[in-house]
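User: Here's a protein and a ligand ((3S)-3-methyl-2-oxopentanoic acid). What would the complex look like?
Assistant: Let me lay out the input and then the predicted complex.
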Amino acid sequence: MGMSAGNYAKKTAIVLALALGLTGICSRAPAAPKEAKIGFALSMTGAAAAYGETQKNGAQLAIDEINARAGKNGIKIVPVFEDDASQPEQGVNVFNRLIFADNVVIIIGPTLSNTAQVTDRIAQKAGVPVLGISNTAKGITDIGNYIFRDSLTEMQVIPDTIRVVKKKLGIKKVALMYGNDDAFTMSGYNAFKKALLDSHIKILTEQTFSKGDRDFSAQLTEIRSLKPDALVVSALVEEGSGIVSQARELGIPVSVPIIGGNGFNSPSLIKNAGKAAENVIVGAAWNESSSNPLNRRFVRAYTAKFGSPPDQFAAQAYAAVYIVLDALKRAGSTDNRKALRDALTHVKGLNTVLGKFSFTKNRDADCTPVVEIVKNGRFTVFGK
Ligand code: 1QQ
């Protein structure tokens, strides 16, 4: 009996489907080493460029180390670096490209919370994990179960900062200054206000400014007249540097400490404000002096490669790449976004340059903050 045209078509279709299926399997078969494509959305330009630069360096160092060790069977990381330009609109373009054109397995970034609160919704909807490395505003990980961060929030750091400052310096009344047009500066403002009230420290005045402002003399003159024991500032580093310099120029004495949030954790504050940055106090997720052997090696390797020591932002970026590597190994795949997300939730007590690292139930960072003070142009440990 001859085969009917219909039967023939059916058999051909089955053979074709099998062949395609096999090719599909083959193309997914482990190449040696396996490659993981990681997207980076970092602020290389714009208001947050000072952070983006060291973030990129920290990530690159980790990638170089991992790839050098990948050998035949390890995981090799293929980074795709993009500039989010410190702008939500550009962040959206970058996320769309990384998710739908580059097909990355995870996105590390974006630099600013202000961008993350927009971009992370795109990733959540597309089922692409995001690991924030410098987002400290409230609510970022609440966007959804694909959103993680290794940066401590303002709410996790600031109460400790205020407690230590009160204990060591006995401050009773402060002036509070904050940027009112940014997710991070607003979050820092809320955290400072709550911590100050909880510590029974009086807020004499609240003064605001916007991104791009250069002249803070009106606010600082008002503040000077009220004679606060300290000046508390929630600002990104550009505006923060201006405030610190001008506070001293306008005669707010060095005996009045200036206390900042995460935006102050960049050496560019010290570079921009010079001597005025001395005695600035800031809470951080990392300090260069940590004796953890992993950290000692990191500080040495980073300094050798880039010619200056790393900052907290470099450390968080470096740690993030190793956190992703740890999860990729357990995910059993280098291109399965869901498996990677699930594996990330199980990162527990991982030894990193930030110390022993875990994610909380809500995918925030679980590591220990440190209070720093600027001495001789360096962030040094202030106290616990
Ligand atoms: C945020 C921040 C900035 C200071 C980081 C770059 O903490 O936007 O959340």
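Summary: The chain has two domains: 34-152+290-368, 155-284.
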